[in-house]
Amino acid sequence: MTSTAVHSADAYHDLPRLMGLMSGDEKHGPAATSTLDALWVLYDRVLRVSPESMDDPERDRFLLSKGHGPMAYYAVLATKGFFSESLLPGFGSYDSPLGHHPDRLLVPGAEISSGSLGHGLPLAVGTALGLRAQGRTGPAVWVLIGDAELDEGSNHEAIAYAGAVGLERLHTLVIDNASATHGWPGGIASRFAAEGWSTATVDGRDHQALHEAYTAPHPGRPHVVVARVEPKS
Predict the structure, then answer these.
(1) For residue 200, which phi and psi values (nearest 5 degrees)?
(2) Among 94, 131, 207, 231, which is least packed by CB within 10 angstroms?
(3) What is the pLDDT at residue 222?
(4) Is 11 within a domain?
(5) pLDDT (0 to 100) of residue 3
C-alpha cells in the first residue's frame, strides 16, 4: 500500500470522529450515516474537484439533493480541505455556516442549497444540459438522492428526460435504505433502466464495489448507481 493510500485510509477512519463533533437537535443521524461511504469514495477517488478548483468551469459538479442530515457531507468536505475542522462543533448554531441544510452561499464546495426533497435531480439535469450547451464535455455531474425522494414526481420527469436526450455526463447516486413509500418492482435501478439509463446496484458500504460502479463506462447514456445500505430505523 502506498503512502497516499495509507493517508486516505486514515482520513476515512477519522470521519466518525468528525461527525461526532456535530451535535444538537435535528441531526438526522441515520440520513447522514447512510451516505458516509458513498460520499467518501466519490470525493476520495472519483470527483475532479478540490478547494483550489471549486470555481474552475472544468471541475466536476456534485449536488447533494439528500440535504437533510448533512453531517457526513460536512465531515468529508472538511477532511478534503474545503473548510476547517474547527467549524464542525458549531453545526446548526445561529452563527455557523454549517446549517441543518447546506447553503451554497455559506458552505465552500456546495454547488446547491438543498434539503427540499425532489429538487436535486432536476437541477443536475439542468446543470448537465447547460454544460453540454457550452461545449464542455469534460465535467461530470453527480447528484446524490435518497430512495424516498423517488416518491416525488419531479424526479421521474427528470429521469425520463435525461434518458431521452442521452445526458452522458449525468450520474445519479441513490442511497437505498429502504425508506421509500412505494418501492419499485425489480428494484430501484429498474425505474432508470426503463428510461434508457446505464445502471449498477451495489453494497453501499463496499468501497471497491462503489468505485467500480462509479467508473463503469456508459457511452451515450446517463448512469445511476444504487447503493444499498442497512434499513433506516
Answers:
(1) -150, 140
(2) 94
(3) 98
(4) no
(5) 33
Contact 144, 64 (CB under 8 A): yes
CB atoms within 10 A of CB 201: 18
C-alpha cell at 44: 476520495
Q: Which residues have C-beta within 8 Å of that of residue 214, sequence separation ≥ 6?
A: 41, 42, 45, 46, 171, 225
3-state class (DSSP) for residue 153: helix
Most confident of 5-9, 16-20, 36-40: 36-40
- The tens digit of pLDDT for each residue in 26-82 reads 556 777 889 999 999 999 999 999 999 999 999 999 999 998 889 999 999 999 999
- Spell out where the chain has E strands: 61-64, 141-146, 170-176, 198-203, 223-228
Q: Which residue has the cell 441515520?
A: 30
Mean per-residue pLDDT over the chain, rounded: 91
Q: Is 63 part of any domain?
A: yes
Cα–Cα dist 101/115, whole Å? 5
Domain of residue 132 covers: 27-68+111-228
SS3 for 96?
coil
For the domain that residue 166 is a member of, what is the CATH number? 3.40.50.970
Q: How many Å is the maximal CA-CA distance in the chain? A: 46
